[in-house]
Amino acid sequence: MLGYENCLDKPGGLAKFFKRRFFRITPLFYFMLLVWLLVNTVYLHSPPNWRAILSSMTYTFGLLPGQHEGIVWASWSIGVEWIFYALFPILILLTSNLRHAVLFFVVSLAISVNTPVLLTGINPAASSFSYLCFLNHLVFFSSGILAFRIVRPSRDQTAEWIVHAKPWVSWIILVAGIIWLISGWKAPFQTYLDRLSLGVYWVAGAWCAFLVCISTGRLWILDNIILRQAGKLSFGLYLLNPPIIYALSESGFYRGVYAVFPEKWLRFSICSMASMVLIWRAALLAYNLIERPGIQLGERII
Fold it and tell me: Which of 243, 296, 291 is nearest to 25 (CA)?
């Protein structure tokens, strides 16, 4: 929001926003779409129909029950994100100050909590869609908007307490976010959250705290060379981890490691480390060969 709030006021700002999003996501996503089309057709003998291909290419699969998980493994979140991008200019106008952001967060929380109940009640077979659809995840987007407005209550205005915050304030917010997160995972509080159908959404509070924490100061635990690199490669890390883990599993690598080493912790550590190294290297390669050229092409077009 920091980069696009003022940009949308400028001539062509809205078109620039969508073009940048398109060229940031599409090159690698289309590449992985081709990969999975080949895998499904040649290896799994289950070629997708043209409707599924079209919905993936147009990023509309997040709106279609039954196609919402996408052809590309784990791509359901991309379908959700593109709905958010489509609504982004409207949401900026609706949350122009902190009070509106708080109201939007409360409303979105109510929507997210009730969406699975309502959709599953209408059609019990739609449980997967009810969990993965945009409305069920609306609260996570609104928590990010809320964090932004806590830091910048209105346009071109940083909150006074952020400006004068001492370094220790960042650590307090970080610890509070961690406690908030862990408390939702532990009994007996977890039991009460589950009864209120808030267990899944509890993490939104921690997410909001961590974002505010980053804005108050650069803590090494959240702002370091490893996490910066992971942020740059995040899209590749996300899209490439399913095929690499699947390939390692199908090749017998995991079974081989578990057969050789008796200690569970050692077997798990070796498998995890090998997977992470391969995924990281693949994401770095994908960024240099596909993502970065796509971003540069988008900038030239813009």
Answer: 291
Look at residues 107, 198, 207, 199 and name the one whose alpha carbon lies nearest to residue 148: 207
Distances (CA, A) of 233 to 72, 244, 279: 18, 16, 10
Whole-structure pTM over 0.85, yes or no? yes
Residue 66 region, left (φ>0) first, then alpha (ψ -120 to 50), else beta? left
Mean pLDDT by 10 residues, the chain (302 residues): 65 82 94 94 86 93 90 93 90 89 95 88 76 93 94 83 85 93 86 83 92 84 89 95 94 93 92 96 96 92 82
Number of other residues whose CB lies within 10 A of the CB of residue 12 = 11
DSSP at 290: I
Distances (CA, A) of 209 to 10, 29, 95, 147, 151: 31, 31, 18, 7, 11
Phi, psi of 154 (to 5 degrees): -150, 170
Q: In angstroms, what is the C-alpha Rg of the chain?
A: 21
Encoded amino acid at 160, one letter: E
